[in-house]
Amino acid sequence: MSGSTKGLLRCRQLLLTALVALQIGDPAPDFTLPNQDGEPVKLSSFLGQRVVLYFYPKDDTPGCTKEACNFRDRWERFAEHGIQVLGISKDNAASHTKFISKHELPFTLLTDEEPCAVATSYESYGLKKFMGREYMGMMRHTFVVDPEGKLERIYKKVKSASMADDLLSDLDLG
Predict the structure, then answer these.
(1) CA separation for the pair 53, 103 (Å, rounded)
(2) For the chain, which residues make up each domain, given as ranges?
(3) What is the pLDDT of residue 2?
């Protein structure tokens, strides 16, 4: 097989993979990202417990603050059930630290720098439109990973002010 044929086959394989959306029951794509203290956090280190991954555009913006504070205000319910909450954005550690301090957030925030490989693997980074302008950005999506490391819930339409409430209700932990 020639090099160009191999290249075309690889491109075709990547395209087919990209066309298959993540589904409930799929293994959650594993990753390692730095937290607000610059320490690496590996998703697979949480095997045996549920994990909420929520992708959000930017620290300390109105919608992102509502979402983070909703998780903060329901934190005890998540902690009671041993559920880890990980927020993921492009923001750096200093921004995360300031956001956590300002809003007294009890959970971990992770940095997924451009080109946002982790968000891309979760279909949470891509083309966005705002006021007629197109740009690449982080999408507000939430995933629940079950104790075996599989996707248990996928939320592509997130209401920032009530995401934590919706999760607790959907998981019958109200």
Answers:
(1) 19
(2) 25-170
(3) 53
Amino acid 28 reads A
Q: Where are the beta strands (DSSP E) in 21-106?
A: 32-34, 40-42, 51-55, 84-89
- The domain covering 25-170 belongs, at the CATH homologous superfamily level, to Glutaredoxin (3.40.30.10)
Query: From CA 95, how far away is CA 99, in angstroms rounded?
Result: 6
Q: Answer whether 0.90 is exceeded by the pTM.
A: no
Q: Which string of DSSP letters, residue by residue, matches 110-160?
A: EE--TT-HHHHHTT-EEEEEETTEEEEEE--EEEEE-TTSBEEEEESS--T
Tell me the C-alpha distance between 92 and 46, whole Å: 23
Catalytic one among 11, 64, 69, 116?
Answer: 64
Amino acid of residue 64: C
Confidence at residue 1, expressed as pLDDT on a 0 to 100 scale = 53
Distances (CA, A) of 161 to 53, 134, 165: 16, 25, 9
Q: Which residues of the chain have pLDDT under 70?
A: 1-20
Query: Residue 11 catalytic?
Result: no
